[in-house]
């Protein structure tokens, strides 16, 4: 996970464990339910957005495989990892995976890279710990 940066492309392929999950919200009706989870692997952590039936299908402790995911900004301008329309997410197993909780890539302030404005670079760390999911 540590190598991902915000982009408008479905190019993230990763295996991670879900550490925590917030309650689902239905801001625009039940068909648009979403919930935020804290995902991590052995290199970094990130906020992972679950949509619709995914909110019920995945729980803390699940090991997840994300194929063609996207790490970008949501409507609240928070950087989140998600499957998006083109990506795919599936459960591989439970509970047995090494992980770290820092750095949390969603807690980093990103800005266009000076030499390549199409790519982003880390500018500063918003918090050494997740503001939404306190350390375990």
Provide structural commentary:
There is one protein chain. This protein is mainly β and 136 residues long. The chain has one domain: OB fold (Dihydrolipoamide Acetyltransferase, E2P), CATH 2.40.50. It is built from one helix and eight strands; from the N terminus they run βββαβββββ. The strands form two sheets. A five-stranded mixed beta barrel has the order 1-2-3-5-4. A hairpin with a 2-residue loop joins strand 7 and strand 8. The radius of gyration is 14 Å and the shape is globular.
Put the structure in a nutshell:
Keywords: DNA-binding. The protein is mostly beta strands and 136 residues long. The protein is 3% helix and 46% strand.
Outline the biggest β-sheet: 5 strands, mixed, barrel
Total number of domains: 1
Q: Which regions are unreliable across 5 or more consecutive residues at pLDDT < 50?
A: none
- Tally the beta strands: 8
Succession of helices and strands: EEEHEEEEE
Give the helix tally: 1
Instruction: Give the CATH level 1 class.
Output: Mainly Beta
Distance between the termini: 19 Å
The CATH superfamily bears the name Nucleic acid-binding proteins
Main sheet: strand order: 1-2-3-5-4
> Which structural class fits the helix and strand makeup?
mainly beta
> Rg from C-alpha positions?
14 Å
The whole-number mean of residue pLDDT values reads 83
| CATH topology heading | OB fold (Dihydrolipoamide Acetyltransferase, E2P)
Annotated CATH architecture? Beta Barrel
Strand content: over 45%
Task: Give the overall shape.
Answer: globular
């Amino acid at each position: 996970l540590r190598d991902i940066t915000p982009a408008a492309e479905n190019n993230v392929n990763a295996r991670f464990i879900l550490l925590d999950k917030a309650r689902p919200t239905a801001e625009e009706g039940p068909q648009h339910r979403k919930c935020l989870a804290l995902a991590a692997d052995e290199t970094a952590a990130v906020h992972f957005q679950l949509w619709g039936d995914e909110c019920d299908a995945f729980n803390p402790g699940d090991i997840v495989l994300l194929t063609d995911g996207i790490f970008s900004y949501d409507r609240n301008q928070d950087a989140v990892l998600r499957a998006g329309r083109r990506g795919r997410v599936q459960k591989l197993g439970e509970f047995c995976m090494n992980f770290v909780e820092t750095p949390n890539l969603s807690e980093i302030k990103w800005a266009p890279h000076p030499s390549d404005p199409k790519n982003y670079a880390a500018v500063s760390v918003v918090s050494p710990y997740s503001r939404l999911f306190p350390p375990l």
